[in-house]
Design a protein that fits this description.
- This protein has about 375 residues and is mainly alpha-helical.
- Strands 1-2 form a two-stranded antiparallel ribbon.
- Keywords: Membrane, Transmembrane, Transmembrane helix.
């Protein structure tokens, strides 16, 4: 879900209404940076299953425990605190969907199934909504173009686009209930609806023109199994509420926490890139400069950009590097590359500065 104010990376910089832009999308790749990034991270490229499982299980335990407290505590103040903890912990757990699209599943056996059972199905965001979609965002010839499902030139759009972008995320839990409790069953008996559901309502994307292809092979069979489970869970939730077995107040808390998770992710998406590319294919270096790192000493990115998402630019440079290695990779590259390297130009101080930059860009207009 996650590109492009083009930071000066050795190529000629542009200016739009006094606002500095990044290098041209067609700027030549900085081969030294790309070579150094590959060489310095070979020894930390292996997935460590223990870290993945421990992190996921801890996040799930804290998240669902806090959600239970938020729904049952009589003291409003403590219920709100528990709700905030639930949002942050479940957001971290949900963020592993990003890792699922990059990791080789043979190196992390059972993790996709475990993640779907613990997070994807209960939160109605199963892995197939991202797998087969996010990889298109990383395709060199698609990134930042109209064929990129996770790209819009947000910095060049009208100011009202940004609050609308966030509001849509706030309503996501209701949309997911409709998607899985109503549209999934209906699409089984209405073939034309099935195609619409797959093409338009089966991907975590922000590009409204994106249309997903019908799945095939083993992935299609996996999709059907996971979608059936998510559909049954969504129907069960609604039946429990309708019969009074799940109090309406508890259901409202669940929706509020899910909405909070979606909003944080959407805000994080707003600052994951600089969003100024107007549809041209971009070099790898330009894609990197169009993306954002928020490294230490900033502390809060651990909460709003968890599971390695604070190193989003570095991730675009080394998409197969596991999340637990990104911090070390950043330290190594920062020390090895001189101050003139484009590598240093994608580091930003934090969410407020990035948000202000994006808002100011929309206000300047085109």
């Amino acid at each position: 879900m996650e590109s492009s104010l083009r930071l000066d990376g050795g190529a000629t910089a542009g200016v739009r209404d006094g606002h500095p832009r990044t290098a041209s999308p067609r700027a030549a790749d900085d081969k030294q940076m790309l070579r150094t990034a590959a060489e310095l991270t070979r020894d930390i490229n292996a997935v460590r299953p223990g870290i993945y499982w421990t992190d996921l299980i801890a996040s799930v335990a804290i998240g669902y425990g806090a959600l239970y407290l938020a729904a049952t505590l009589a003291a409003v103040g403590w219920a709100v605190v528990a709700g905030v903890v639930a949002v942050l912990a479940l957001y971290r757990a949900l963020s592993f969907i990003h890792e699922l699209t990059h990791v080789k599943h043979a190196t992390l056996p059972g993790f996709r199934l475990g993640w779907n059972l613990l997070v994807g199905i209960p939160m109605l965001t199963p892995s197939f909504l991202y797998e087969g979609v996010h990889n298109l965002h990383h395709a060199k010839t698609r990134y930042g173009t109209v064929e990129d499902p996770e790209y819009l030139p947000l910095a060049l759009m009208n100011p009202w686009t940004l609050p609308t972008f966030v509001l849509v995320a706030a309503l996501a839990p209701v949309g997911l209930l409709i998607r899985f409790a109503i549209l999934s069953p209906l699409s089984l008996v209405i073939p034309s609806l099935r195609r619409v559901v797959v093409e338009r309502y089966s991907s975590l994307s922000i590009n409204p023109s994106f249309r997903r292809r019908m799945p095939g092979g083993a992935f299609a069979a996996q999709w059907v199994r996971i979608e059936a489970a998510a559909s049954l869970w969504a129907i069960t939730l609604l039946v429990l509420v309708a019969t009074g077995n799940l109090p309406l107040s508890a259901f409202a808390v669940m929706l509020a926490v899910s909405s909070g998770v979606a909003v944080i992710n959407q805000v994080r998406t707003l600052v994951a890139h600089l969003w100024e590319n107007e549809g041209e294919a971009m070099s790898v270096t330009a894609q990197y400069l169009d993306s954002v790192n928020v490294p230490p000493p900033a502390v809060l990115p651990m909460l709003w950009a968890p599971v390695g998402l604070r190193y989003h630019a570095l991730h675009h440079l080394l998409p197969s590097l596991p999340y637990h290695s990104l911090g070390e990779a950043h330290r190594r590259l920062g020390a090895a590359l001189d101050e003139q390297s484009p590598y240093h130009k994608s580091s930003h101080t934090g969410l407020p500065a990035l948000t202000r930059r994006l808002v100011m860009s929309t206000l300047r207009g085109r």
